[in-house]
Amino acid sequence: MDYRQLGGSGFKVPALCLGTGTFGGRGEFFKAWGGSDVAEATRLVDICLEAGLTMFDSADGYSGGAAEEILGQAIRGRRDQVIISTKGTFRAGPGPNDVGSSRFHLIRAVEGSLRRLGTDYIDLYQLHGFDAMTPVEEVLQTLDDLVRAGKIRYIGCSNFSGWHLMKALAVSERYGLARYVAHQAYYSLIGRDYEWELMPLALDQKVGAVVWSPLGWGRLTGKIRRGAALPETSRLQSKQAVDGGPPVDQELVYQIVDALDAVAQETGKSVPQIALNWLLQRPSVATVVIGARNETQLRDNLGAVGWALTPQQIAQLDAASAVTLPYPYWHQRGFTERNPAPV
C-alpha cells in the first residue's frame, strides 16, 4: 500500500481508506448503504490491515453513531495499528445546540466520538460541513484547544467551498491556531467540480484531499449500464439515498462507463479499479475513501493500487468525463491558451 503525506503535515496516510458508512445500517438512508455488524466489520478490518490499509473513516452521524461504535469494537486491541478519521457538526439531537461547529457542540461531539470509538484520541477530526452561524475564530480556537488537549492529532474539514476553506486557513495563520491539513471532498469521474477551485487551492495551500464517494454514489461499480436494471442491493434503489447523494446527469454516467469498459478491456482491471486508479493519480489527492458491503467488494477495491493507468488511458477518461465549466472558470481557461481571444 502506497502512503502519502496528508497535506502540508508530516503525517502519512494510506492511498486507500475504508469508509464505515456501511456499518450499522440504521434508518432507510444508511440501510441502503449496507448493514455490517461487528463480526463482518471486524472481518473487513482484518482484510484491510493485511493489505496495508490502516485508515478508517467514520462520522458521528453514520447510523446515529452506530458506525463509530462498530468500528471501535472491530479495532479493539489494535488501536496502535490503525488511523482513525471521523467527522462531526451534523445534527446529533433535538436541541438548538445539538448541531453546528460551536464550542458547545464540537466539544460534545468529539467526546461522544471518543466514547463510541473506545479511544482517547482521534487521528484526523473533520468538520462534516460549514457552519455559517458560528464565527470561524470560535471554531478554530475550539479545535486548537482539542489538539492541545491531545484529543485530536490533526484537523480537517469536509464539503467546504473555496472561500470557506481559504478564510479558515487565513484565520489559523493569523492567530497561530491548528490548521486544516485535509479536506474531505466529493470527487469522481462523474463529479469533477472539485477541480475547478478546490484543487488549485489545495495545491497552493497544501491541503490533502480525502475523497468521498469515489465511485460516484455507486454509479461506477460496473453494474450501471444503458438498458440494464439496477442491482437489487444498490443504494440507488432507495429514493432517499439517491436524493441525499450527488446530482448527476445519467447520460454522462453512461458515457463514462463506456470509456471505463474500453479501458477495462485493455488493462484486464475492473471498472471500479480503473475509476479509483484514475483518482489516485490526480493532483492533491492524499487518500481515497472506499466503501464495501462485503469482502468481495473490498478485495476488488483494494486492487486499485499497485499499478497505474497510462497517460493515454487517463486522457481517454478525462475526455469522456469532461463537462462545460461554469463562470468564471471557462473564462479563466483562456489564460492557459497561447493566444487567448479577449472577451
Please characterize this protein's 3D structure.
Helix 2 runs parallel beside helix 11. The strands form 2 sheets. This protein has an 8-stranded parallel beta barrel, surrounded by 6 helices. The protein is 39% helix and 15% strand. The radius of gyration is 20 Å and the shape is globular. It has 343 residues and is α/β, with parallel strands linked by helices. It has helices at 27-31, 38-51, 66-74, 103-117, 136-148, 162-175, 198-205, 239-243, 250-267, 271-280, 295-302, 311-321, 329-332; strands spanning 3-5, 12-14, 16-19, 55-57, 83-88, 122-127, 152-158, 180-186, 208-212, 285-290.
Could you name the key traits of this structure?
alpha/beta; 8-stranded parallel beta barrel; single chain; globular
